[in-house]
Amino acid sequence: MDADGRVKRSFGRSLRARCAAAALAAAACAPAFACPLEVIGTWRLVSATEPQPMLVTFGADGWANVVTVNGAGRPEDFDTVAQVRFQLVPRRAPKRIEFQTPRGNDLFPAGTSSWEITSYTDESFASRRSDSLAGEQSSWSRLQTHRYFLTFAAQDNVATFVMWTTLDGQKPAYEALGATKQGGAARFGRVPDELMQAFARDSKHADQAMMRIELSEAEYRRTHQVFEAWDAVLRGNELAKDDDPENQTLGLFDAALQSVNRCGLKIRTAENGTAAAPARRPADLVRAIRKINDRRHVPDKLFPFRWKPPAVDS
């Protein structure tokens, strides 16, 4: 069964039983282990000899762009000088990056070549080119072109949802899924823009609660897969018909918490030394994780509303 099939099956058959009583516990027990390299994004060659910054942008579409920097050195000043096809091998836990290059350039020889991944973190990796006779290694560091935030939000008798926020230095972008009430009837799906905007800033209202954390680009890529999977199920009308929106929202919260804690504990769901209590309602879960992780919440005074991508030093 493929990945989409597994998602649909879990939504249709076991969502209520798995999530209604164990959303907190599942996330609390999520194992911490080294994640595979997340290569999507822009990387800079770490070199003392290159006269100009050498940048490579790996796209989700399977194309890698060799980029030069002009002007102030921000993403809008990047120029693509070469483009090659790439794939991760193996895809789920890549040990190398393979390239197909019609015409060679300074970074990629013509034809098929590869980089062996010798070490990596979320923010850097080292590689060895297949055409390197001496076995030299290159070091790459991730270039910050965006900032990302994850918000768990609740407003009593109105909505409970998970929201992904992306900053690119121009206009913030928001994406959110969860349960909303309209005229007394609850529904699970995409959250209206006015509700997302209401949680773009902290609220002092007693009926509202939110927990907002910043994600690295790699963390964002991992957690955004949760949004993509649930959104695909919604668009395919594959949600279990007999499940209620609150249980579906608990399932979404469960998946989002596990994804954000996949490579290390980022959001705690239980006090130290205590067991996690079952979540009865999504709003209870939001308030619980905010209480436990209050120091990790990003308040408005620390939120980078006017952030701009840093310039690349030439």
Attribute tags:
eight-stranded antiparallel barrel, five-stranded antiparallel sheet, Lipocalin, alpha+beta, 314 residues, disordered N terminus, 24% helix, 6 helices, 13 strands, 2 domains
What does the secondary structure layout of this molecule look like, with pairings?
Blueprint: H1 3-19, H2 23-28, E1 41-46, E2 55-58, E3 63-69, E4 78-89, E5 96-101, E6 111-120, E7 124-129, E8 137-143, E9 147-155, E10 159-167, E11 173-182, E12 185-190, H3 193-198, E13 208-215, H4 217-235, H5 245-260, H6 282-292
Antiparallel strand pairs: 1-2, 1-8, 2-3, 3-4, 4-5, 5-6, 6-7, 7-8, 9-10, 9-13, 10-11, 11-12
Poorly predicted regions? 1-33
The helicity comes to 10-25%
Strand content: 25-35%
Describe the largest sheet.
8 strands, antiparallel, barrel
Q: What does it look like?
A:
With 314 residues, the protein is an alpha+beta fold. It folds into 2 domains: 3-33 and 146-302, no CATH class; 41-143, Beta Barrel (Lipocalin), CATH 2.40.128. It contains 6 helices and 13 strands. The chain has helices spanning 3-19, 23-28, 193-198, 217-235, 245-260, 282-292, and strands at 41-46, 55-58, 63-69, 78-89, 96-101, 111-120, 124-129, 137-143, 147-155, 159-167, 173-182, 185-190, 208-215. It has an 8-stranded antiparallel β-barrel with strand order 1-2-3-4-5-6-7-8. A 5-stranded antiparallel beta sheet has the order 12-11-10-9-13. β10 and β11 (173-182) form a beta hairpin. The radius of gyration is 22 Å and the shape is elongated. It starts with a helix and ends in a 22-residue tail after the last helix.
